[in-house]
Each structure stands twice: as C-alpha cells, then as structure tokens.
Amino acid sequence: MSFLDVINQYDPQQLLAEIEAKRAADVEHALAVDKLSLEDFKALLAPAAEAYLEPLAAKAHQITRQRFGKTILLYAPIYLSNKCTNGCLYCGFNATNKVSRRTLTFDEIEREARVLHEQGFRHILLVTGEAPQSVDNDYIAAAAQRIKNLFSSISIEVYPMEIAGYQQMVATGVDGLTIYQETYDRELYAELHPFGKKRDYDFRLLTPERGGAAGLRRIGIGFLQGLGNFRTEAFFTGLHAGYLAKHYWRSLISISFPRMRPAEGSYTPPNPVSDKNLVQLICSMRLLMHDSGLVMSTRESAALRDNLLPLGITQMSAGSCTAPGGYSDKEASTEQFAIDDDRTPAEISAMLRRHGYDPIWKDWDGAFLDKSAGR
Amino acid sequence: MDKLVIAGREFSSRLMVGTGKFSSHAAMVAALEGAGTEIVTVALRRVDIDNPADDMLTHIDRNRYLLLPNTSGARDADEAVRLARLARAAGCEPWIKLEVTPDPYYLLPDPIETLKAAEILVKEGFNVLPYINADPVLAKRLQEVGTVTVMPLGAPIGTNKGVRTREQIAIIIEQAIVPVVVDAGLGAPSHAAEAMEMGAAAVLVNTAFAVARDPGAMGVAFKKGVEAGREAFLAGIGEQRDRAEASSPLTGFLHD
C-alpha cells in the first residue's frame, strides 16, 4: 500500500470538520501523552489548540532538546537553473513569466560551490526547475560529481525522478532529496498546476517513496503554506512523514515549513498562515515526530527565525540566494522568491551561539557512500 | 578506584563521554573536565578528520584523552568499516566505537551488520568497542571474534530512561570475558551508579550532560555516581531477599 492509498481514504472536507470539532479537553489529552495518535495530532492542529500555544511550545522545546541537544545544522541551496516548463501559478520560475533564464555551466557551479565552501558550508542543496531539455538527470549528476569533494552532504530539490534516476544520484554521492507536495488538496493542486509535468499529482506524491526505494538517506517533505488550508495540509504532511518513516525506516525524514514569499508573477496566496499558526504547526509536528529534522529557511524574517529557534527547529539555511549564479555574481538572473532573513552565514552562526546553540556545519561524510573510500 | 583495563590499556576513570548535542565546545569541555573522563567518543561524520584545525578536534586534548572515533550514521558493515579505515588513515589510533544503526530514529544497532563489521575490523588490527542492543548471545559472539569490550544499551540513545534492559545486561556481565560498558539511555547519576553496582566495567554518557543546565556540574555528579556504584560493587552488595532474615540466626542456639 503506497501513501496514495492512504491519503485516498481521506475526504479533506470531512477531515477539516473533524479537526475543527476538537475541543480543549482533546488538546489537553494530546499534550499529556508521550506518543500522539492521529486524533491527538488533529487536536493540536485545531483552533482549540491556539489557546495552548505556550504549553505546546514548552513540550516541543523539551522533546527537541532531548533528541537533538543544543545544535542546529546549517545548509545552503545552490540554484543550478531557473529554466522551467511548468506553469505553477505561485512560482517565480513559472514558464510564462518573462524573466531572464539561466542554467549554470559546471565551471559556474563550481564557482558558486567554492563561495559557500569558503563560508563554511558542508551541507548543500542543489535546486533546479523542471526543464528536461537543458536540465536532466545527467546534468544534475555531473554537477554533484563536480563539487562533491567540497561538501560532506549533497541533497537535491529538483523535479521528481523515477527510481533509476535517484539510484543514479546515489551512485554519484547525493544522499538527500527534498520534494514538497506544495498542496495535498487534489483539486487545488490541479488549479495551481495548469500545465507541465508537475500537473501529475500522483507522480509527485509518490516521489519520496521512489527516493526511499533508491536508498536516499534523507528525505525532506513539506507543503507550501498559503495555498491550501494549513490544518488539513499539516495533517497530511504529518501522516506522510509517519508513513515514510515506517516504510523507509533507514531514511531520516525531515519536514520543512515554507511560507509563500513575494515572487515574480505576483500571486496572492489564498490561505495565508499567521505567525501564530506557524508556531502551532511546527510544535505540533515536533510532538508527532520526535526525531524528524524540522527545517526553517531564510524565507522567514530574522526576528521570527530567532524566536522559532527553540520551538523544534533543527536545521536552518543561511545566507541563501535563490537566483542561479547569485553567490558569485550579485547581478545574476531572477530569483525564485525573495528571501527575508538576509544575514550572512557568519551572522547566523553568531546568533546561534548567542542563543546557546552550536551551529553544525558538518554532520555527514561522503565516505558513507563512496565505495572507493577507505580501501 | 581500581583501574579499568581495555585492550591492555589502563584508565583511572570508568566514565566515557560522547560529544554530540552540546551547545558549544566550551560546554563539551566543561563536561569532560567535570566527568574526569579519559575516553571521549566523537562521531566521524561530525569532524573533518583530515583537517587538524577541525573545530571539534582542536578542543579535545589528545594527550589527555583517548579519542574514540565512532561510526554513527553507518547503516551497514561496509560503511562502518570504511569510516574506521578513514579514521586510522587520518592518524587516529586504531580504536573504534562500532555503531551500525540503520534506523535513524531510535538509532538501534543492527546486530548482524555489527558482527560482520567487528570481524573485519578486528582482523585489521582495530580495538573494536561495539555498541549493541542488550543481547547476551550477540555479546558472546562479538567477544569470540575479538572485540575489546561490549557496549549494550541501557535504553535507546538520548532517552535518559536509565537501565531498562537490566535483566539482559546482568546476563551479559555475568558471561563477559571483556569489560561491559553500558552505553545509551543513562540520564541521571543514579542510573550510572545502578549500572556500576551491577558490575558494569564502565558507562558512556552524552545527552544527560549536553542537555543539563550546567554540563560541568552534571559531569561531576556522574563521576561521583560511577565511583559510588563501582565501590559498592567491589564492596559486595547484599542480595535482595523476599523474606526478612535476622542478622543473628534464629537457630544459632543449636550449635551451642
């Protein structure tokens, strides 16, 4: 049974009604148990839980400290290409947007990589749009190959691949995959993705499973906050994370919390998520998934990121640029979305230390995957 | 306290310390100092082993502590062996804490892959200290292939729940021909004392220090717990009985 079979058992409208029907007593029960049931998780996502944010945050903090200690893993994205054949209404890379398009050469990729390596990063995320003509599996594998000596961990956030594609990535030294469903709401998904390969909801939904089957060690999922109703989206994300953790038990599942940011195309999100609800969401996810990585990107403001730090977050991007070539060339092409926290990696690192956290630059080693190492 | 001997090397302290999860290197160093440890384990995935200026390694005085690299993150024997070899190639002493934990959630060790890796590494001349579930038969198998300790878990890593595997650990200790080090799950000095009272040769602690308000003071508290437990074990703890037993036997008069 795939996750598609699992999610197909749910009616989103009925689910929302069930979540909204949860009362204070349900929330208190969820806060009292060690391991959440799905009913407990619904209660924590309910409007009724908004009156319990402080105890929810305290518990999320306590679990996170116990499981991860006082450490935060730092990473940075490298945007390889902003070419895209999809029509996602909310994305700056949308094929119909009249923006300058660019796919980095391998020399340019190495230049970007060296800037980030100098800043201290050893965990890197390679990002592209979906453009099979110019950006294919071989290109991504060659990019990873070119820079793998500079980094201890390489993840990809690109178009969904078949299992063979992910196996090719693993063989090259890629150890992680990030893929957001954007929205778990099938109807909304169809509206937001009017054309392009990404229009295939089922293929995208099953992507993390193909990554897991190919042996990727880190699998990151999430939904794009602002599109669908955050309560049902968060429930499905938690359900998905739990499914993946059970079925692909050798892979570490992490969950990201991207909120919509201003981008080329000026899309207005129909369901904006407030800071308060973002906190509710992060803390609830921690109570459901004690050991999952929870990721906070530079989409959020510096002040908010600092405050979210003790609530369950274990990984942060720093000094990110979302335009291909943007680290080594400040005049580079169009960015995917505008970042908010524009502090340098050194400033983020200093902030973490001020808050009593150890910034972790390296928490992996290419030798795990490199069959030629240690002979 | 009597000396701990592992692979012919003597240690005055029976408290080993892990280095993950600390808020800063200063907090880690404070815990090491407080604990009075002589053996410090470091995740190879966390350090840049080829770089002598690596941030974490520069904070661990290798003249004072035995640096015990661990293979955490390895999912199978191949990966663990590869990491151990890299550590040795980078100039570490041939001591390795073998961790093969394919499950990234509870970090429970894979017994089959652990045994495979131990066999290879022992043959290559490593002193292998394997992290295992509290499985007495596996412990025996590992000793047969030549590991220099066995390190059963008291409870899953990071849980601070104490010696939940007590019955199994008691069997492992009873049957052991190498030092038994209780690793993982010890959250309070009383847990460490309990393991030592049972006859464990040493304990390994990380989370309890890293998440303490004062890691240095917690190090000191654990040091005392370990010493108290060891001394009690050596002194001979009276057996627990279900019925009261008078200290002057009731039938003593029969010998008069």
Overall geometry of chain B: globular
Separation, N- and C-terminal Cα atoms of chain B? 42 Å
- The run of helices and strands of chain A is HHHHHEHEHEHEHHHEHEHEHEHE
Strand content of chain A: 5-15%
Distance between the termini of chain A: 40 Å
**Helix segment count of chain A?**
15
Poorly predicted sequence stretches spanning 5 or more consecutive residues of chain B: none
Largest sheet of chain A: 8 strands, parallel, barrel
What is the N-to-C succession of helices and strands of chain B? EEEHEEHEHEHEHEHEHH
Helix content of chain B: 25-40%
Calculate Rg of chain B over CA atoms: 19 Å
Give the integer mean of the pLDDT values of chain B.
Answer: 90
Count of individual helical segments of chain B: 8
Low-confidence regions of chain A: none
Q: What is the oligomeric state here? A: heterodimer
Strand order of the largest sheet of chain B: 5-4-3-10-9
Q: Using the CA coordinates, give the radius of gyration of chain A.
A: 20 Å
- Report the β-strand fraction of chain B as a percent range: 15-25%
Overview of this protein structure:
The complex is a heterodimer of chains A (375) and B (256). Chain A starts with a helix and ends in a 15-residue tail after the last strand. In chain A, helix 3 (24-32) crosses helix 4 (38-45), helix 4 (38-45) runs antiparallel to helix 12 and helix 5 packs across helix 13 (275-288). Chain A is built from 15 helices and 9 strands. Chain A has helices at residues 3-7, 12-20, 24-32, 38-45, 53-68, 106-119, 137-147, 163-172, 186-192, 201-205, 207-213, 230-247, 275-288, 302-308, 345-354; strands at 71-81, 123-128, 153-157, 174-178, 218-222, 252-256, 293-296, 315-317, 358-360. Chain A has an 8-stranded parallel β-barrel with strand order 1-2-3-4-5-6-7-8, surrounded by 6 helices. Chain A is an alpha/beta fold and 375 residues long. The mean pLDDT of chain A is 91. In chain B, strand 6, helix 3 and strand 7 (127-132) form a beta-alpha-beta unit. Chain B starts with a strand and ends in a 21-residue tail after the last helix. Chain A binds chain B through residues 65-71, 122, 152, 217, 245, 249-252, 290-291, 353, 356-358, 360, 362-365, 367-368, 370-371, 373-375, and chain B through 20-25, 27, 43-48, 73-75, 78-79, 81-86, 89, 102-106, 158-160, 207, 210-211.
